[in-house]
């Protein structure tokens, strides 16, 4: 199981573009066989600071996700509007809802 939290900050005035891109990505990702969870959150103190909570069955499932059209479309839309790129933190499951083997 692979769990990551991705932090993405976007430029002022680009929130709507970001949400459009991530709607495409979320809808597609949630249908992938290797995806367990895919949630978009934002900082309550900064509407331009987002977090993506992702759980995939394996690194291989994440690799397959990165090859999908919805992921590629999202990246093309958000890369020009992000500030400082994307940071990722990886986690080991302890008590994860609906996780097999956690």
Automatic annotation (TrEMBL):
Q: Which GO terms describe its molecular function?
A: oxidoreductase activity
A GO cellular component term found in this entry reads: cytosol
Chain ranges of the ABM domain: 2-91
Checking InterPro entries in the record gives: ABM_dom (IPR007138), AI-2_Isomerase_LsrG (IPR050744), Dimeric_a/b-barrel (IPR011008)
Q: Which PANTHER family match?
A: (4S)-4-HYDROXY-5-PHOSPHONOOXYPENTANE-2,3-DIONE ISOMERASE, QUINOL MONOOXYGENASE YGIN-RELATED
- Give the protein name, as stated in the record: Autoinducer 2-degrading protein
Q: Which organism is it from?
A: Celeribacter halophilus
């Amino acid at each position: 199981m692979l769990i990551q939290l991705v932090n993405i900050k976007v430029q002022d005035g680009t929130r709507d573009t970001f949400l459009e891109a991530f709607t495409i990505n979320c809808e597609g990702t949630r249908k992938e066989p290797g995806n367990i969870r895919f949630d978009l959150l934002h900082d309550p103190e900064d509407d331009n600071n987002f977090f993506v909570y992702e759980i995939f069955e394996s690194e291989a499932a994440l690799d397959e996700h990165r090859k999908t059209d919805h992921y590629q479309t999202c990246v093309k839309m958000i890369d020009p509007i992000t500030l400082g790129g994307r940071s990722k933190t990886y986690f080991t499951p302890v008590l994860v809802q609906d996780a097999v083997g956690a």
